[in-house]
Amino acid sequence: MESWWAFRVWDSCVGIMAQAENETSVSFLKKLRGVSSMQS
Q1: Cα distance between residue 3 and residue 22, in whole Å
Q2: pTM (predicted TM-score)
Q3: For 1-40, where are the E strands, in sequence order?
Q4: Can you give the residue ranges of every domain in the chain?
């Protein structure tokens, strides 16, 4: 039972981290696209 609860906590932490990483990479891609469109 305890291990299942720990797995749930770990799973939610990984999900939050993945979501944050995805958001930062998306904003980074938007910045990159903006810079490349400014140069051309």
Answers
A1: 28
A2: 0.51
A3: none
A4: 4-36
